[in-house]
Q: What sequence folds into this?
């Protein structure tokens, strides 16, 4: 975990739900822990979707700003925190992506921006990096076991922000086919992950 | 195809696309209506959302620049400072709103969506207001700090002036003391001058008579001159060569007639042995037959000692 002088947090790996409950009570330190835990993943997601470091930074900041402001609306029993958090980040990315697509004259900076990124935040702990690496290994392994056409619709839907109908148009495939691929892909991913022993719960 | 999609079992099959955020609006509304009534479907959605929540890890995680964290937490700190009380009064986590109940028509959904957009805009506006308030607060704090610095500098200057004033007052007091001392010296010099004038006028006035006082002891070269007016009690005696006295001794002037000696004033001579005294006899000077100067203990004596220095006949 990130270094923290707070005796209530330091030395204790708190669950996401515990931390977000503290954030809802105005605990900035709990917010810092959530940022340390998830900012790298949110930034990586935003970079993949937007391919622009500056816009990705904005998404990271806005995502966690919304977490801070909406912490009291998080329903612990209805879904995991990570799903909620990544949902916010992805929606922001897709909204930005669509804004960019509506303004074709604006060139994207592309991944070259990464070379110009400012000094990186060094507060991510080894625990967090190890947690990310394990999750990344699990999901990439599971994705690699999907048929290519199923992996493609997942890619277009999640990272491309396309609806099933838009995917069908994009691939020039029947909508029903796309729906079937999406359904099968998700079910298979779920099964593969469960077989790898991952619990589909928040930590 | 659309009729097929509105079939509940077909709609349920879209739960994966719903979790993925890939459902078109119409399919989404249908599925959400179904979700309201199906706990099993809700549980399936919960699990699929966990699957989808792993997809971000497929993108290589990257560390955002440090300024992202700094700006975020500066923004949070500013918002917290601006509305700490209202946030403290926010409802607890467990008081989150319940899931929607009943059937929601698409129109209502659209209205709600519009409200959500409006609220988002309001949130953005509020964020902007908070940022402006934060900037304003920072300016006020900076102005207050400048004012405090000015006050501190003024206080420091005032303390310096007070110290200078105290030092000046001490110098003024010292000068006043010197003035008093000078005035006292002037008064003494004026008194001496007045006495000198008196003596000069006394001894130079017409009709003055003089009598010589001679040394009464061998080896002592002292002498004196007494100026007097017959019929008057005042006289001036000018002397020289009076030997130095030991501590505790004074000279004393005496008048003498047939009945005895009358004590006059006591005095000390300066180191040169030269000086004068003005003496007052108990009656006219020419009523006495002799005068003399003796050495006596400090304070004078009622009868003269045998240590006579000068003597003279009137």
A:
């Amino acid at each position: 975990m990130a270094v923290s002088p707070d005796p209530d947090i330091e030395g204790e790996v708190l669950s996401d739900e515990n931390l977000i409950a503290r954030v809802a009570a105005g605990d900035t330190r709990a917010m810092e822990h959530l940022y340390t835990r998830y900012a790298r993943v949110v930034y990586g997601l935003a970079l993949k979707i937007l391919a622009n470091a500056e816009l990705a930074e904005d998404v990271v900041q806005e995502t966690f700003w919304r977490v801070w402001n909406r912490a009291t609306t998080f329903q612990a029993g209805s879904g995991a925190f990570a799903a909620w958090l990544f949902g916010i980040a992805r929606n922001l990315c897709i909204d930005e992506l669509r804004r960019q697509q509506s303004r074709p004259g604006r060139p994207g900076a592309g991944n070259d921006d990464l070379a110009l990124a400012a000094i990186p935040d060094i507060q991510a702990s080894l625990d967090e990096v190890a947690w990310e690496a394990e999750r990344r290994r699990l999901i990439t392994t599971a994705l690699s076991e999907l048929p290519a056409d199923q992996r493609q619709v997942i890619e277009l839907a999640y990272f491309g922000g396309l609806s099933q109908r838009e995917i069908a148009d994009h691939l020039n495939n029947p909508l029903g086919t796309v729906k079937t691929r999406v359904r099968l892909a998700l079910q298979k991913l779920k099964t593969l992950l469960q077989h790898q022993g991952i619990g589909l719960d928040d930590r | 195809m659309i009729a097929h999609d509105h079939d509940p079992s077909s709609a349920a099959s879209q739960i994966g696309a719903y979790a993925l955020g890939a459902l078109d609006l119409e399919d989404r509304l249908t599925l959400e209506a179904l979700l309201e009534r199906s706990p099993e479907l809700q549980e399936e959605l919960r699990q699929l959302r966990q699957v989808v929540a792993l997809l971000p890890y497929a993108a290589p995680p990257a560390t955002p620049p440090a300024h992202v964290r700094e700006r975020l937490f500066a923004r949070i700190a500013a918002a917290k400072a601006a509305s700490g009380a209202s946030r403290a009064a926010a409802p607890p986590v467990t008081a989150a709103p319940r899931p929607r109940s009943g059937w929601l028509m698409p129109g209502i959904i659209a209205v709600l969506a519009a409200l959500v957009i409006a609220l988002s805009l309001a949130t953005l506006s509020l964020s902007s207001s908070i940022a402006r308030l934060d900037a304003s607060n920072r300016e006020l704090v900076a102005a207050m700090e400048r004012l405090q610095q000015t006050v501190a500098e003024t206080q420091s200057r005032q303390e310096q002036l007070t110290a200078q004033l105290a030092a000046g007052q001490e110098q003024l007091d010292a000068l006043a003391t010197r003035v008093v001392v000078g005035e006292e010296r002037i008064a003494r010099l004026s008194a001496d001058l007045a006495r000198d004038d008196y003596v000069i006028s006394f001894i130079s006035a017409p009709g003055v008579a003089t009598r010589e006082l001679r040394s009464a002891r061998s080896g002592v070269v002292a002498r004196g001159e007494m100026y007097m007016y017959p019929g008057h009690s005042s006289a001036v005696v000018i002397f020289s060569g009076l030997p130095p006295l030991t501590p505790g001794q004074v000279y004393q002037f005496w008048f003498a007639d047939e009945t005895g000696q009358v004590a006059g004033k006591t005095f000390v001579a300066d180191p040169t042995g030269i000086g004068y005294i003005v003496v007052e006899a108990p009656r006219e000077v020419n009523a006495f037959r002799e005068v003399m100067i003796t050495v006596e203990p400090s304070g004078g004596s009622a009868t003269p000692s045998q240590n006579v220095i000068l003597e003279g006949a009137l």
Q: What stands out?
A: Chain A touches chain B through 87 residues (CB under 8 Å). DSSP finds eight helices and no strands in chain A. Residues 142 and 193 of chain A are 7 Å apart (CA to CA). Residues 28-50 of chain A form the longest helix (23 residues).
